[in-house]
Amino acid sequence: MGLIVQKFGGTSVADLERIRYVAKRVGKTYDQGNDVIVILSAMAGVTDRLIDMAAQIAESPEKRELDVLLATGEQTTAALLAITLKDMNYPAISMLGHQAKLVTDCTFGNARILEIGAGTIIDLIEKRNIVVVAGFQGCDINGNITTLGRGGSDTSAVAIASALKADICEIYTDVDGIYTADPNICKKARKINTISYDEMLNMASLGAKVLQIRSVGFAKKYNVPIHVRSSFSEEEGTMVVSEDSGMEQLVVSAVTHDKNQARITLRKVHDQPGVAAKIFSPIAETGIVVDMIIQNTRAEGQTDLTFTVPKEDFSAAMEIERKVAGKIGAEDVLGDKNIAKVSVVGVGMKNHSGVASIMFNTLARENINIMMISTSEIRISCVIEEKYTELAVRVLHTAFGLDKED
Ligand code: ADP
Ligand code: ASP
Ligand code: MG
Fold this sequence. Notes:
alpha/beta, Carbamate kinase, 6-stranded antiparallel beta sheet, 27% strand, binds aspartic acid
């Protein structure tokens, strides 16, 4: 018996039948004597549809209003689950972000959680209510509705679990755990039983969207154990916990991919001090996160400068750079949205050489061209054409000996 936070993702609440199933699962945990807080995502596809609708009206919809709109997805599922639980005679109550006192900064669309006033939820739990909280949303100090970025319900769940000192935060999703590669594209991927926060942080930052990166950062900071598991089966999933010396430290422990990237090149930029600052400062001021950067030196004191940004920021970044190019006298600005980043990750890489060469040779054998490369102590990432993503993940998974045995 304990305090359990259960988060259900979009596919787990995709329709009324799934919501009824979730209610049974929550009810069972409650009947075992546990206190239960449930965090919900919007029904699968709803957030995308709402974004599309706003985009049909305006090219760049006002961010405050977009958050008011997007928050309705989670409002719907929270109410529907509470209605279902009550219909099954459970004492359930739904709460929106502001009612759960989830206070964020004012960054609409990508807000950070500043604090959670746990008192309200604690009072309800002490009276043996099942509290159903709409994920992904909070409110700023002025009372505006904010959202936490795509996949943000994971972060709502972990943040609430840490504020209430829950015994565990269970993340129910459409796969039965965290795998050595996305199991939906790599059938030979292996389920990982236990993974450290650090390793999961790396995987999430390199595209493994099974957990939103901020949720893992939160879990690490406040030591919240996470159990990622399937809402479609009773099977044990993957535990995400602090580092344990008993954990296997493979040279490469996972292959990840990220299709949410776009590439921008400024051609024939003057090779002199201050130019890079002029290119990147206006991008940083708008809050766009630049990932990889490469600079190729040409003859005659000129360079080409290429960098990547998230796909959703591509149009805004292109517009900024066209203006910058005019000011700094660059010849042209080129953009490419058909790219992807594939990465190999592993803490054990620190003490091994040759990982890069295996990666490059493996991609070369498949005739996959590498457009950009970046490395750190524990990962190597290559930007390739998007259409080769799945192939690249599979061949790298095999090359690094990660395939499960048949
Ligand atoms: P939810 O809607 O439940 O939040 P998400 O779609 O956000 O679910 O995350 C689950 C998906 O993450 C899986 O369907 C899978 O395609 C993807 N994924 C990517 N990398 C991995 C990985 N290494 N292990 C497990 N799932 C992964
Ligand atoms: N509904 C939001 C999204 O689709 C948040 C979430 O599901 O975690 O990104
Ligand atoms: Mg998710």
